[in-house]
Design goal:
The chain has 215 residues and is α/β, with parallel strands linked by helices. It has ten helices and seven strands.
Length: 215
C-alpha cells in the first residue's frame, strides 16, 4: 500500500485527489494539509511514502516544504502538482528534491498513475513541463533583445491573465462585461494559438514565453 500525504490549499483540488485515490486499492491518503504551516507539521510527523505538494501556498512556498522533506533523508518521493510555473521554478523544485512535476489540469487517473510511477523509481512529468525542460538545456541561437511577439490579441491577454489567477469563466465574463460564450470562444482561440489543451498548459506556455510576465 502506497501512503500519500497531500499539501494543497485549494479544497476542491484536494477533494478531487482524495476521491481519485479512494477509488484504487493500492494507494491511500494518510494525511492532508491546507497551507504551509500545516505542511510543516505534516512533514515533522512523517509516515507517508509520497508527498504530493502544491507550490503556491497562501503562507509560504511549497519549494521550501520540499526542501524540508528532502532534508529528512527518508525514503519519500516528492511529486509536485501545481497550476503553472516558469522554467526557473520547475528547476528549483527539482533541485530542492522533487522527482515528479504535474499540472493540475492532468486527469485524476494520470495523477494516481504518477504516484505509482514515482514509487517504481520513475519521474512523472507533464508533457508541457518536459518540453520546457528540454528547451532549457537545448542550445539556442542568439536571440535579439526585443520582447517576444505574442500571437494573442489584447482581449485574449485579458482573459488569460484572469484565468491565471484562478478566475472562473463566469467570473471572467462578469469582469470583462461580455458573455460566457464569448469567453469560451476566446479560450478556444488561446488554446489553438498556444498549441495547448488546458488552462494550466496555456498559462504555463504564456508564462514561459514571457507574455504574462511583461503585462
Amino acid at each position: 500500500m502506497i501512503r500519500v500525504a497531500i499539501v494543497e490549499d485549494d479544497p476542491h483540488m484536494r477533494e478531487r485527489l482524495e476521491a481519485g485515490i479512494a477509488k484504487v486499492d493500492d494507494i491511500m491518503v494518510c494525511a492532508t494539509a491546507g497551507n504551509f504551516a500545516e505542511g510543516e507539521g505534516l512533514i515533522e510527523v512523517g509516515g507517508y511514502d509520497v508527498l504530493l505538494c502544491d507550490l503556491g501556498l497562501p503562507d509560504g512556498s511549497g519549494i521550501d516544504l520540499i526542501r524540508k522533506e528532502a532534508a529528512k533523508g527518508r525514503d519519500t518521493d516528492i511529486l509536485v502538482i501545481t497550476l503553472f510555473a516558469d522554467q526557473s521554478k520547475v528547476l528549483d523544485t527539482i533541485r530542492a528534491g522533487a522527482r515528479g512535476y504535474l499540472l493540475k489540469d492532468e486527469r485524476i487517473e494520470h495523477c494516481v498513475e504518477a504516484i505509482r510511477e514515482i514509487r517504481r523509481g520513475g519521474s512523472p512529468i507533464s508533457p508541457i513541463i518536459a518540453r520546457q525542460l528540454l528547451a532549457q538545456i537545448r542550445p539556442e541561437p542568439p536571440q535579439p533583445l526585443n520582447l517576444p511577439v505574442s500571437p494573442l490579441s489584447e482581449r485574449e491577454f485579458e482573459v488569460l491573465n484572469l484565468l491565471s489567477r484562478g478566475v472562473s469563466y463566469a467570473e471572467c465574463a462578469d469582469i470583462l462585461h461580455i458573455t460566457a460564450n464569448t469567453i469560451a470562444t476566446h479560450v478556444k482561440n488561446i488554446y489553438r494559438k498556444l498549441e495547448v489543451n488546458s488552462r494550466a498548459e496555456a498559462v504555463f506556455e504564456a508564462s514561459a514565453q514571457g507574455f504574462l510576465d511583461r503585462r
